[in-house]
Structure formats: C-alpha cells, structure tokens
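step 3/5: co-fold with NAI
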Amino acid sequence: MKKSAAIHKAPQKKPAAVSVALDQPGIPALDFGSAWEYSAAPESTSVTVQDRYELFIGGKFVRPKSGRYFQSVNPATEKPLARIAQANAADVDSAVKAARKAYDGVWGKMSGRERGKYLFRIARMIQERARELAILETMDGGKPIKESRDVDLPLVAAHFFYYAGWADKLNYAFPGKSARSIGVAGQIIPWNFPLMMAAWKIAPALACGNTVVLKPAETTSITAMHLAQIFQDAGLPDGVVNIITGVGRTGAALVEHPDIDKIAFTGSTDVGKKIAAAVAGSGKRLTLELGGKAANILMEDAPINQAVEGIINGIFFNQGHVCCAGSRLLVEESVYPQVLRRLRDRMRTLRVGDPLDKNTDIGAINSREQLNRICELVDSGVEEGAELFQSPCALPGSGYWFRPSFFTGVTASHRIAREEIFGPVLSVMTFRTPAEAIERANNTCYGLSAGIWTDKGSKIFKMASQLKAGVIWANTYNKFDPTSPFGGYKESGFGREGGLHGLLPYVVLE
Ligand code: NAI
Ligand code: MG
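step 4/5: write tokens
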C-alpha cells in the first residue's frame, strides 16, 4: 500500500509514462491556456452538523439499544464530522415493528390520493432545503458541490415528485389489473449517491402503499438523518419510514428479519450475492442493483471533442464512484491517436481538490478503504503490463485523493479491464469493426450500462440492440431521469428502479 500512496498521493511526483501513441507527430496539442484558472470559490458551510445522530424509528429520534456510535469523517479533510448511531439486531427489530404497525394501521389503508399529498409535500421540502442537503452531502461523502447541488439534489426532489404523481394512478399504470402494496420493505443503500439512492428506494415504495426501513451506508449517513427530519416536518405518519444506521451487520440483520416482505439493495456484487443467498426460500421479494464495467464505444465518425467531454464525464463524474461509470473506452483504431491526445490534454485541466469549491471537477475519494481498493487495482494494472497516464495536478495534503488516470495497452484479461474500479480510472482499448466493439463490450460478467458515440443514427440502433446492458446512452453519458428505468443484467443484478418499471417491485398485481 505504501507504494500506491507514493504514486497516487504525492503532489510533486512526476506523472507516469505517457503512451507512445500520444507522441505521434501531426496531432496538435489542445491549448487550454489560462482560461481554466479560477480563484477559489468555496461554498459557505453555514449548515448545522449535529455532534451525534440517533436512529429514526416510529417517527422519533431514538438512542441505539447498543449504546454505541461510530464516527463519520469528512473524506476531504480526514476530520471527524459526527457520531452516528450503531443499530444492532434489537434496533432493527424495533424499526421493523414500527414499519409493520404503520403499514397495518395507517399507510397500507390510506388512499393513493392522500399518500401522494405527503410525497408532494416531501418533494417540495427537499427543494426548499436543497442547499443545506447538498453541502452536507458534499461534506460527508466528498463529491463536488457542483454535482450534489446540480445533479443529486434536483434528482432527489424529482424522484419524489414523479412517484407522488403515480400514487393515485396505480390502476392506470397496470391496465386491467389492480395493484396492491406488499408490506414492509427493507432497503440498503451505498455511499456513492446517498440521498439519491434513498429517494430511488423510498419514493416508489411509499407511492405504492408500503412502509420502509432504510439502512444508509456507514460513511454517508448524515443526509439520510436530515431527510428523516423532513419526514417528521412533513407530518408523515410515524413509522412509515424508519432509518437505521450502522455497518454491514446492521444490513444483514435487516435482510434476515422474518417480518420483512421485500429487500431492495444497491451496492457491491459480493454483498448482493450474500443477500440473494440469505433471502432464498424465505418468500421475500428481492431487487439487486450491483456493479458494472461499462464500455463507452467511440466510432471514427463521432464528433471527437464532444465525445471526449462525454467520456470524461462518464468516468470522472463523482470520482468514478458510479456503478454505471464508463470505465472501459473502446476507440476505433483509426482515431485512436487523436482521441488519446485530446483525452490527455483535457484531463490535465481537470481540477481536483476541495469538494466545497464550486469550481472543483473531481472531489475526494469516499473513504480510505475505497482509496486503497483503487490503488490496489491500479497497481495490478501496472504490474500486468498496461501503461498508466495520470494527470499531473496538485493534490491537497490531507484527505483521500486520486488523480484522474487512464491506462493504455490494456488487454481483456487484465484485472483493470474486468473488475469494477469505482474510481477515476479509465482503461482504453481499440477495435477495428463494429462487431469487434460489440464483442469486447459484452465480454464482461456485468451488464449495467454502455455508451455509443457516432454521427450515424443507424449505427446507434444496430449497436444498441446487440449490447447486453440495461441502460445505453448515445452521444451522451450518465444522464438520469426519474421517468427512465435503470437496472442491469447478469452480475449487475435484476429489477428496475425509476419510471413505471420502478413501481413493479413494490406491488402485487391481481
Ligand atoms: P457494500 O456492498 O459493502 O456496501 C453497500 C451497503 O451494503 C452498505 O450500506 C453496507 O453497510 C451494506 N452491507 C454490507 N455488508 C452487508 C451484508 N452482509 N448484508 C447487508 N448489507 C450489507 O460496498 P462497499 O464495501 O462500500 O464497496 C465495495 C465495492 O462495491 C466498491 O469498491 C464498488 O466496486 C462496489 N460498490 C458498488 C455500488 C453500486 O452502486 N453498485 C455502490 C457501492 C459500492
Ligand atoms: Mg463520511
């Protein structure tokens, strides 16, 4: 690990070797000049972070029965932010009981029209408190404020608005059938989009008449507890949403609880497999949204500058902490040198640093564990013979950082081409024909997303029909909308979130 820290953290270290393809004559370097220099523009941090966050059970903030708390740190400074309650099996049981009581007593019987009113109110309150929530999301998780403010929070509110609209129209969603709620849903979410994942899970569950026990990820629990305050302020009946914080064991206790009717999980494929094994034969319903190893396919007729911008967004957005990140770039051989050169020049202008600065492009890696995972995989790439380019940008002295990087000379057998890196690291490969591009793109155990860059609509349709991925973007990347279903195939999981399809996991159709 020491070696990784030296390569990836030292600000003055000379970047690793640049690919031979970049040194070919005849390709002018892009001069971004001084247009990219900005003064620091830090977002104000005048938000209240509590010293301690309790569990949210039955509409109240309660101390954990274990009496134990764990620290959440700010990954950009490594400084402690708050102590978070550690729920044990007894706390999980209280939360499930509260959710069952609310389901039987209030929410399960309430008309869709009434449920919709609560969801609309919650959506509006999220909008009103969006700035506070965005700052907290950035402080606790490390993502740049321009993403939490302009991407995450608008989508969080949009999800509540969208599913509020469905609450009284479920019988129109499924013509000829009547949709009944399921009961109590246990929902376990990761740290890469903490509030967005909470919204993706809670909003459709509530719209369909279910109650919820949600378990946020241990490094990013704070905004979920502020969302709990919004539920309280909105007058949501007690126990309709319960939020229990804790580590993996807390999630496992929720999965194993006998009075849960449905589990929804987003996270690693390893934990997803454990959950699938744990619920097998229990009658609990399950949806899993797991990892990915998406290919971005760049054809020679694509508008190269636009494509490079999209590829950069596809892998460096949110530090690459994105299950659908375009972590493999497949470039048509004829344009490979230009693409590589533009990619390198543009990457040199990316600003890595203080996530609360409005001009920051790439924020902090979410945790030391995640930084270690990224470093270990990048080291394996170097050891297996791929060539690493890293942006020479300066990095802050403390905090968890990783330079935007790409590998060339990657073969399909390298670990960096097969395993999810979940960091700002791109593996670049080439292809000669569309058929070869499809074969390479599909050569993965995952199937969550893919991207195609070309000037020809016909190529988009032809390739999209052959790519084995749940979401395919054409001439854009990482665009989300509550009306659009999202989910994967193969080891990326099953079930869809978003859109009309996102209602299905939360209803019984009769
Ligand atoms: P993880 O899968 O361990 O964590 C996700 C959530 O599951 C957290 O809330 C965690 O507390 C919970 N959890 C952990 N063990 C559990 C268990 N046995 N039963 C029930 N819940 C459990 O992910 P982790 O360790 O934080 O990240 C590891 C790798 O997973 C990343 O490097 C990345 O490759 C991938 N990942 C994928 C995500 C996605 O969006 N698909 C999100 C987060 C991580
Ligand atoms: Mg944190």
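step 5/5: annotate
The longest helix spans residues 145-166.
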